[in-house]
Design brief:
- This protein is an alpha+beta fold.
- Helices cover 18% and strands 25% of the residues.
- The chain is built from 4 helices and 7 strands.
- It has a 7-stranded antiparallel beta sheet with strand order 1-2-3-7-6-5-4.
- It is globular, with a radius of gyration of 16 Å.
Length: 208
């Protein structure tokens, strides 16, 4: 199974498609109901915005918080962020992968350019531990932000047109990743501002 660090690197590396990372299945019964059907709702019964085909979408690698990125915002909330609610896709490319979450595209894209945002849950000890694991030459940690009294890590990779944020939610990290693909890359600050805006809109829903 890929660790959270490796899974996010895969997502960054495939930013053109924002495709999901691969992982070996975590075999448990969290994703099925009493009749053995694949679970189609979050923990409190809200319907997922896509047909879930993965029985082990919820697994030991992402069970540190009940927060569900895919149901955190309404369609209206997403439109306020200029995100296309109808573009939602499950981040899971295979059953039992490390990261659990969703990905969307932004509205109003110019020809030949694409903006995408994804939000994912993966178990993690702390922001400090994440900073230590992402300490290679390509890693750039910007000053932490504070949103609603909570510390938010802000990170990007040198040479990539992407930015991600980190929020601790119980025993897991909630990562928000924004990527740009196009002929005229914006300044990194613009990409990070979008990641922070999405984080700001959802952080109150993330359990402490």
């Amino acid at each position: 199974m890929l660790g959270r660090r490796s899974a996010i690197v895969v997502l960054l590396g495939l930013a053109c498609a924002l495709s999901a990372c691969q992982a070996s299945p975590q075999r448990d019964s969290q994703g099925t109901d009493v009749d053995g059907h694949v679970q189609q709702t979050n923990r409190v019964g809200t319907q997922l915005p896509f047909p879930n085909v993965h029985p082990h979408r919820w697994n030991r690698a992402n069970s540190g918080t009940d927060y569900e990125p895919c149901t955190a915002l309404s369609g209206r909330d997403l439109r306020t962020l200029n995100v296309d609610a109808g573009s939602v896709k499950d981040a899971a490319g295979t059953d039992g992968q490390t990261l659990r979450g969703c990905r969307w595209t932004y509205l109003g894209r110019q020809q030949n350019e694409k903006w995408r945002v994804g939000q994912f849950v993966g178990n993690s000890i702390s922001l400090q531990a994440d900073k230590q694991s992402k300490s290679a030459e390509i890693d750039i940690w910007l000053p932490d932000a504070v949103i609603r009294g909570r510390v938010v890590g802000v990170h990007r990779l040198r040479g990539d047109h992407a930015c991600d944020t980190y929020v601790q939610s119980r025993a897991a990290a909630v990562t928000t990743l924004v990527t740009y693909v196009g002929p005229t890359p914006p300044p990194p600050s613009e990409i990070c501002d979008r990641a922070l805006a999405f984080t700001r809109a959802t952080i109150s829903k993330m359990p402490l």
